[in-house]
Amino acid sequence: MTATHGMNEDETCRAFVMPALKASHWTNEQIRPQFRINEGRLTPTPKRHAQGDPLIADYVLEYAPDVPVAVVEAKRWRINANDGVEQARRYAAKLGLSFAYATNGHQIVEIDYSGGAPAIREIDRFPSPDELWARYVGDLQADSTVGRDLLKAPYDHTLRNSDNTAKRPRYYQRVAVARTLAAIVRGQKRILLVLATGTGKTMVALQTVAKLHRSNWVEGRKPRVLYLSDRSMLVDDPKDRYFLPVFGPDDVHKISGEPVRGRKIYFALYQALEKGDEEELFRRYEPDYFDLVIVDECHRGSARDDSQWRRVLEHFAPATQIGLTATPISRKDADTLDYFGDPVYTYSLADGIEDGYLAPYRVRRVRLNVDMEGYQTTPGQRDRYGNEIPEGIYGPKDFERIMVILERTEAAAQYVIDYLRSTEEEGKHGKTIVFCENNDHAARMRNALFNAAQAEVSARRNYVVRITDADGSPGRALLDEFRKDDSDEPVIAVTSKLLNTGIDLPAVRNIVLFRRIASMPEFKQTIGRGTRLCSVIGKGSFDIIDFVEATRLFNDPGFDGPPLRVVRDITDDQGRLLESEPESANGDAVDAETVAEPENEYTQEAGGTLEPQPSDATVDDPDEVDRIRARGRRYVVNGVQVYKWGERRYQLDTDGRTMRLVTIQQWVHDRVLELDLAPDKLRSQWATAKSRRELMTILRRADIEAEELPAEFGSPDVDPIDLLLNVAWGLPLVSREERLYRFLHEHRGFLASFQPEARQVLEEMLLKFAEHGSPQLKPETLAVRPFTDLGTVVELANRFGGAQALHEAIDDLGRRLLEAS
């Protein structure tokens, strides 16, 4: 065997791959070894999330800093170079490159996707930097002096991360910038970029403008740029956090009132540009004054054919116009693609989750009985204000818009509070947004949450608040606090639509949907409030609680990111969880009649006025429109029995995209093994009251309600611990009666060791175990009958010689019951 045959990959790279690259005139600065492409997929676990391994390319070849043109995948000498082709293709596709190479030091395989005839072939040497650069710009159809200057112009690294390192664009942001610049060079006047919420559209816009300013795109001067949107936050955040630090106050200006000239980058609200006593402000700028117009959230008002804001874009038609959105829309009267054309680059929610840049999510579906069965009125029935209610059956489409059932909101609020309490970490509840049908519904939801969370509200006055357009300056102040990653309050923000787009809320852990949503763009924008990661609080995933079946849109082919699992909950009439059961693997088709009420939202203008914003949602059911017009009011009723039913769980399949239905037994089995709970460990932790309580909390965070397992498994006579041991480890089932029988025969001496009065307490505790199971084996049980008939808790403790001795006796009883098997 030759020495080269035994070389490992590193030795092959040092001895052959690097020399081959340098022989083709690649310098050390142009060869990026161990190039980290992404962060690695985030996967939710019972401990919140785990991060997978990142994608790392052996080498990335850069013609200029941060301008990659090819990927090289290296294999050890004795491995066939073709074995690296698939890896090289995958990495090149991620980086948006048409050229990739696989080599083992003596073979070089080129993968070429440029032009119209992709090819894989063996070559004798690596192309030189100039050769690959010429092929790269040719493939982008940007092979001109301006095109070459634009594409290799340096990125701006002025912005800093929290640790003071340079804020460098991620790989997909560089791809988006390159595709955008190439389209500009080709003379494309309307350009669309689609990037999922939370993936940095503003960074793409900044770097695009920075490259344009560092090139000769506009001969003799720097280009003039107009950054447009319809909400103040969508204008002020990019201006203040991105462009001002890079370009400075002399070149950055927000248009308001008068047409200011002499700046390089202008920011404006459509509303401000439309103002003017004699002539609209936008008309006071010549149509060719701006070279580039960036339209943020371009799926909104400007997308509509008849929008008055479309006039602004049409006035500046000579400029190159770039549309930025996470959710392009396509419907009869509004089509983003029809105006801007097909996207030059798309980075989806699924891409962001796969790369570890966006938080994956779990889904818990909760349905209320009145939503499933409808609410039927009786002839002559009046609401709580004396209004006669038209007779009929009212369903989900009517609730909160025509028919208000107070208990429906109260039951949902109780569920949310119970859920937050069950998932708290270090005594803190996760920040939560609750989306309601309208401002009135949001007010009642806030009140219901306030009343359900009395302990939390006592500790934090602003634990739950409403933030809508109707809440004015106090609402905006609360929003500012809610947005802070490390703020303790507000914890719950209740809204209708105000928070569903354009606001960075990285610390949000829970999205609650109590608003019917039919619009895919609105749904994606709403879900996007939770997708941002937040290292400050260790957030790597988030949860969706859906009361209105809005998450059926996950099943639509138009949505690209499947939930990690879907659960349905069955609860009592107080909103407390009773049981769970799996949902159909395929789910139901999206309800075509699910419609959202059209509702104006408002944005704060610089001068303090509020401007109406368009809604993407429409009422498209003619019968529904007739009912709304005929009635003209909301009817409010109470005294209705409302409870929740149904739990559904999904788990991602091995392909990372499709959902696989799991039975409750399989779910429990997998979670117990994930938690590393061996039989002895399970028994020992379950035996005593304190460790059992801790174990039940751990299981609850893994979506296992231990006390509900007997009902869920159809074994009401078996203790939860025996069901856990059976499902996870295959141990035989033992009924509670059998355990009690064995205990009484094997541990008579234990009971006899206590004085009669103390033994009476333990015997009653055994009866509680026989009736309700081992979770009753705790000191708190002494506060209910029949123990209260025997005396106070202090008096009962005195029968054992004190509280400590009582606790030890109960724990010893629990251990002995578990041993009797």
TrEMBL record:
It is an enzyme of class 3 (hydrolase). Its EC number is 3.1.21.3. Residues 578-622 are annotated as: Disordered. Residues 590-602 have a biased composition (Acidic residues). Keywords: Hydrolase. Residues 182-346 form the Helicase ATP-binding domain. Gene3D superfamilies: 3.90.1570.30, P-loop containing nucleotide triphosphate hydrolases (3.40.50.300). This is Type I restriction enzyme R subunit. It comes from Catenuloplanes nepalensis.
